[in-house]
Amino acid sequence: MTRFSQRYNYHCDVPLASTLPRESFSCSSQLSRSHGPGFASLNRRDGAGGWSPLVSDKYQWLQVDLGERMEVTAVATQGGYGSSDWVTSYVLMFSDSGRNWKQYRREESISGFPGNTNADSVMHYQLQPPLEARFLRFLPLAWSPKGRIGMRIEVYGCTYRSEMVNFDGKSSLLYTFNRKSVSPAKDVISLKFKTRKTDGILLHREGQNSKHVTLQLVRGKLILLLNSGCANLPSPDAHATLTLGSLLDDEHWHSVLIELGNTHVHFTLDRHSQHFQAEGKCDYLDLDYKGNVSFSCSHPQIVPVTFLSSRSYLALPGTIGEDKVSVTFQFRTWNRAGLLLTTQFQHGPVALVLVLNDGKLRLSLSQPGHPARDITAGAGLSDGQWHSVSLSLKGNHLNVMVDGEAASVAHSLHGQIDSGETYYLGGCPDSSSGPGCGGPLAGFQGCLRLISIGDQAVDPIMVQQGSLGTFRDLQIDTCGLTDRCLPSYCEHGGECSQSWDTFSCDCMHTGYTGATCHSSLFEQSCDAHRHRGNSSGFYYIDSDGSGPLGPALVYCNMTEDTTWTLVQHNGSQLAKVKSLNRESPQPVFFKYTVSLDQLQAIMDGADDCRQELVLRCKKSRLSAGPDGTPVSWWVGRTNETHTYWGGSLPGAQKCACGLQGNCLDSQYHCNCDAARNEWTSDTVVLSHKEHLPVTQVAMRDTGRPHSEAAYTLGPLLCSGDNSFWNSASFSTDTSYLHFPTFRGELSADVSFFFKTTAPSGVFVENLGITDFIRLELRTPAEVTFSFDVGNGRCEVTVRSPTPFNDNQWHHVRAERNVKEATLQVDQLPSKTQAAPADGHARLQLNSQLFVGGTATRQRGFLGCIRSLRLNGLALDLEERATMTPGVDPGCPGHCSSYGHLCHNGGRCRERPRGIACDCAFSAYDGPFCESEISAYFGIGSSVIYDFQEHSNYTTSKNSSSFATLLHGGLTLAGEMATLSFRTTGTPSLLLYVSSFYEEYLSVILTPNGSLQIRYKLDRHQEPDVFNFGFKNFADGWLHQVTIHREAAVVSVEVNQNARRQVVLSSGTEFNAVKSLMLGTILGADPDTLRASLRGFTGCLSAVRFGPAAPLKAALRPSGPVAVTVRGHVAAASQCAESKGTRAPAREANRPISSGTDGGEALVSADRRDPAVIGGVIAVVVFVLLCLTTVAARIYQQRWLYKKNESTVPPAGDSAETALKSEVNMQSSVSESQREYFF
């Protein structure tokens, strides 16, 4: 049924109830005749001064019949005159026919109205939106604790008239427009409909060329189907579908508005809308009618019953004397499980139980001593649609039918089959212990209708009046099922699912988290990733946080001083341009890996953006041709054409060489403009953010003979984050920053960093008339998030075991949505508080947003706030602080919070926006001194680091440096040495540090692969030798060694877990350190020289002695380098990347030197080609030598074995003798030398 409506009173606020006769009022019961409903008009004092029911409970109601359909715009209530009786909250219901009531909801989740606080004051409530109905019913929910229910009411509104049309499912109405007389700027279609059917076409409109608009119901939802006619779609075959509403088969009026413009479609159902933007024009159609169309509206008398809670039930008597069981009904619910029906036969302990389980029906027939017989029928029955159920038991057959599909099973139960004495629908009384009752399965929550027992229809009105059966927690003559996913509060594509009393959001694969998928899982920028300690790589970033833009996959390049965001496109290859058949070549369009909106957000948040374009030309120009027209250009983000090139201002039409004056031909401003018959190029950098990124490049001057062009467009590069470090310092407790009102009605999140030494203070506050939102440091160890949306004050507090006022940065993130409020501070456990089930949902604010203080200038914040974001939108604190007394832009002191990001001896350096790690005194490199500096050593190669020469350079820079002590001839009372190695060769020298006084430290691998450390701190004594077991460290895996000496105490750590400590006997001071050697040693004491004739072949990394990093000095020279490289030493990406020593052929990406005999001090050398050749030769030689060495080693080990068999050592020195036998290179070591074994 549809209708066209018309309002006859423009001032729709006339009192309607006070003019009605007493007979228009009715009620559930009355305390006495003087308390009857006829005395319930507002301000009425006769009778008992209002209506009061016989019993004050939630099943009472007061009803008014307005006589005809009226538009109701407001209601008002009072208590009983001069009494202690009033209602504090109530539900308003409405109906066209006095049957099938519907609940009026103030908000999406609010059903109750606020009532009175005394007997005589008037509580007036405006209905937004108004409702149209003839009957209104007031259902008290709560009342005066010192009295009983007492009500006087008034209804305000005006007359409502409408033309109605009734359709029987086969009829139609055709309307014809005269195109010549009607030519509006847009088409507007409005109607109201009500139906009890879930499917059907309401409106179909056809135009020329099969263009049409169709409005139809599908499973209780309203769908608008559009094509390129009135749908304004670009393609004639294109279609669009807009869907609104749910549960529209409720026999209540629903309003539809369709606005069809030249470029848009606006679709509205009740209070919800969808918008579609397109192009084109609409056609105008015809109208006529045919079939069984009546211009009136019938009111089917179907009475539904609502089961409000899991404790609800309806008990109905069975049919006496029948030898069968027969029950039919229809149900609808969102719950996947619940008890629908249970009964026990009058004769014999046979029980019948029907439950909803996982969206399916399961019917069980059971008898003690016999196996139960089960039937499962239906699927997906918890979808909110009406489903019909029919079950019967007669003879030995049990049958159940769901939505017309039957399932049956035979049974062999003994005893008489008869009708149950009592049928319990939806649940059981508390006192019942019958089948299906008292178990883990909860009661049914949803709606039932068309109930029949024993072929006898059940009248729920009789149940309501108390003349049939019993019940608890029911609403009769209404189906209170609501769609909690309409509108869906799940954001960012989260999937909404629901039950009777709540909904949930599935955020899987959305990139967001939280109860409503509001909060982004990803950082806002590459800069934020950097300051979480992340290294370069691909990351998702979400530039607008919880805003509408999704996360974008970018490459974050973390360099030592800058963080770059790289966004790639589909045209990174060289694009060649050449004319065919004298036709101008078509431009190339570039599509980026993220959307243009995401690109704009990335660029808006960056400090600087640029894009490199390399242009290659052969007889092809860039600038204007002979007639002055541009022959080459590029297009930016806004589809504007640009003819300027990198390094110049927009409109200058000069390349960078033209501005710098170094073009190949001084007559032109670009190299390509010289149009030479040879390939020339211009490398340009486009850096105006407003025009980037490049979406199209056109080079059209390729029509002449032998003219060609090519270009390469690099990725979009952006650096910095203008919001992550945007901060303000609050120096007085009365100062604050103010911004426009925060708009976060249904979901709101606030995030920021703060640091302070003050014990308390308000970070953020925004007020409404009664609503508010506030974040504050309540105590030194408590951060509190408080707000009020109309349900009373709500607080969420995070407490820390350590104070927050430690002058370090702390991160706060608070979120409030319709389901819950959460607060997270740093990495502490988050706190959550659930929202009331049916409370107010909208946060309504109207004051300015205060940052760092409050409107009353009390409890102001002292300290710094940075990176403040509200619903993903960054606030510019620095700009507002420049014009606010008591607040300064910026906030120094980041190393106290972020200094831990600098590893391996790197030092934190303050920057205006963030920090930088100084790796000058670290053996590592990279943004956080975490990138190990590794080198592959070929056969006979070495690196020699000269401390004395190094000290000459560093003394002037740092008088307190380690090198200064050496240069002054002072001794070392202690030192720290670290290195990592990977090799398969033995014996090997890993590290050797010498002095001018013949003192040394050496680290070697013995022939059996065990680790040996030698200290000699007195040239007049023998060295101390430490042997680390018999484990073979030459196994091709990476091993780490750390040596720490304090005077005579030496601690050695191997692979970060094996720690040993010994005491030296050779001395306590390292005197006049001379040099550090890696690889082959040219001169050393006889013991070390014999143990390291082969030097070292393999990979070394992270080598450090005190502040000296020899590999870094060789591979990353930053000044005059006191390092000498001999042989083939090549930079390796990482020693740990692969096992074995065959990897360097792949790892060697920067040869250091290919010198042969003489060493050469490297300052800044680059000898790539000879080094590669030398590296290949070295590898070949190395393989041959390895084969020779293995053969010799096998023969040598066999000889040692035979020798050791003939000379068994005494028990006292067996370990020492065995090791000396194993280390054949030490056969002549003095017997007085000290050795230690671990």
From TrEMBL:
- Per the database record, which ranges form the EGF-like domain? 481-518, 892-930
* Disulphide bond pairs: C864-C891
Keywords attached to this Swiss-Prot or TrEMBL record, sorted alphabetically, are:
Disulfide bond, EGF-like domain, Membrane, Repeat, Signal, Transmembrane, Transmembrane helix
Q: Where in the cell is it found?
A: Membrane
Instruction: Kindly list the residue ranges recorded as spanning the membrane.
Output: 1171-1195
Membrane topology field = Single-pass type I membrane protein
- Domain (Fibrinogen C-terminal) ranges: 517-569
Domain of life, per lineage: Eukaryota
Q: Where is each Laminin G domain found?
A: 303-479, 726-891, 952-1135
Q: Mainly localized where?
A: membrane
- Hydrolase: is it a keyword of this entry? no
GO cellular component terms listed in the entry, alphabetical order: membrane
Q: Extract the ranges annotated as region (Disordered).
A: 1136-1161
* Domain named F5/8 type C: residues: 12-158
Q: Which InterPro entries match?
A: ConA-like_dom_sf, EGF, FA58C, Fibrinogen-like_C, Fibrinogen_a/b/g_C_dom, Galactose-bd-like_sf, Laminin_G, Neurexin-related_CASP
- List, alphabetically, the Pfam families matched: F5_F8_type_C, Laminin_G_2
Q: Which family does it belong to?
A: Belongs to the neurexin family.
Protein name (Swiss-Prot/TrEMBL): Contactin-associated protein-like 3
Source organism per entry reads: Neovison vison
